[in-house]
Amino acid sequence: MIMANADLRERELIKLERMTAAVTDELRRRGIGDAAASLAAKTGSAVYRVAFQRWVNAADDLDLRDTISQSFAMLRALIAAH
């Protein structure tokens, strides 16, 4: 439903951007440097978006947490391979 409605997509992107900013701020508060905090938060956000899309579009009954974990595993494998 969200993907079919431009207003809902925009609102969802705004929420995701706010969440990413909050994670970035929290990582900085914990002593992580600006660049690393931003990279980590944006990477996590991207992984979440990919996992969420897989979860929404799945024909079978996937668990969102498992889908997020699988997406992080795919990213780790991709990084390790290159």
TrEMBL record:
Identification of the protein by name: MftR C-terminal domain-containing protein
Organism name: Nonomuraea glycinis
Gene3D superfamilies linked to this entry: Tetracycline Repressor, domain 2 (1.10.357.10)
